Amino acid sequence: MTISTKLQEFLDERDVNYDVVGHPRADSASRTAEAAHVPGDELTKGVLVEDAGHYMLAVLPATRRLQFGKLHYMLGEHVGLATEEEVRSVFPDCEHGAVPALGTAWGLEVLLDESLAAQDRVYVEGGDHVSLIRLDGPAFRNLLGHCRHGDFSRHI
What we know:
With 156 residues, this protein is α+β, with helices and mostly antiparallel strands. It is built from 5 helices and 10 strands. The strands form 3 sheets. The chain has a 5-stranded mixed beta sheet, with helices on one face. It has a 3-stranded antiparallel beta sheet with strand order 1-8-7. Strand 2 and strand 3 form a beta hairpin.
């Protein structure tokens, strides 16, 4: 179980308290929550979106689905889902489908769904399919910096 090198360096450089939580291999956010025995509302997932080569990471709970119409309204522009090839190029040290929700570590603008704005604790993909990073909510939001917040998801 090893988390992304870039993610680990990002957390360590900021002297953040975190725990690595191992779990059986899982291939989706909802299955990861089940495998790790963590509440799905506390497990974050990152969805890479783009507009003309400008990438942003939409961050929402595992229990919710991104609604592009709401995201377009919030941004005032249309964005699309990044291709698998684009995701691999932006997150080269992460396994396919294990995008950490801390896009700031990769220099990305982060869009935070309001449903995560008050969580006391969050779990972030570690960049593989067998580890999560546990952070307290305020530390997580601090790591995101001054990101845009909005209501752009719905419960699955």
